[in-house]
Write a structure and sequence with these properties.
Elements: H1 3-16, H2 20-29, H3 43-47, H4 52-76, H5 81-93, H6 106-116, H7 118-135, H8 138-156, H9 159-175, H10 177-185
């Protein structure tokens, strides 16, 4: 394996795997986020602690994981940008420190998008907000926003990036498989 790819995989995984939601709830509430709400370590579940500031801080820090990873890669290994993006995204979902049980990756994905494409970032955020306002489901917003990013990336005509967005879409569907079942059964929790 090319040593540069080794470096990219290493720092992308290390940055992406930091469980900020878990760390913040332990630090400020002396609670384990995995025992609250859905048990997920991401921003949506951090909001369920009742402390909105922790939810927002988790969202920002998880976004920064994706953004910083891409920033480093753009500066030092630009030819490996999609590898860095995928590894950082997967690291959040499968962190070695938590026995590979992490978050769903949406905030990290948003950070990656912010670094890669302002157009797709706008598509993602707009779609996410519109679906949330109409249906009140965070999971549905994430699924449809990820689909829209993939579809618009096809229009932007960059095959490699479109392939990356397609892979992310499949992973997002996988991480939201339980939510999809609850949506189907009309038992999914709505955002208040």
């Amino acid at each position: 394996m090319n040593i540069e790819i080794g470096y990219v995989i290493l720092y992308s995984y290390l940055i992406g795997s930091v469980p900020y939601g878990l760390i913040l709830t332990k630090l400020f509430l002396n609670k384990d986020l995995r025992n609250i709400g859905s048990g997920n370590i991401g921003a949506t579940n951090a909001f369920r602690t009742g402390k909105k500031s922790l939810g927002f801080l988790t969202l920002i820090l998880d976004c920064l994981k994706g953004y910083v990873t891409i920033l480093i890669t753009l500066n030092f290994f630009p030819e490996h940008i999609l590898i860095a993006s995928l590894i950082c995204f997967l690291a959040h979902i499968f962190p070695v420190w938590l026995k590979f049980k992490g978050g769903k990756g949406i905030a990290v994905y948003l950070g990656i998008l912010i670094a890669l494409s302002y157009k797709l970032t706008i598509i993602f955020i707009t779609t996410w907000l519109v679906i949330l306002i109409i249906f009140k489901y965070s999971s549905l917003s994430s699924l449809i926003a990820s689909l829209m990013v993939f579809l618009f990336s096809l229009w932007l005509n960059n095959f490699n990036q479109s392939l990356f967005y397609f892979v992310v879409l499949i992973i997002v569907i996988f991480t939201h498989r339980e939510n999809i079942l609850r949506l189907k059964n009309k038992t999914e929790n709505k955002i208040k």
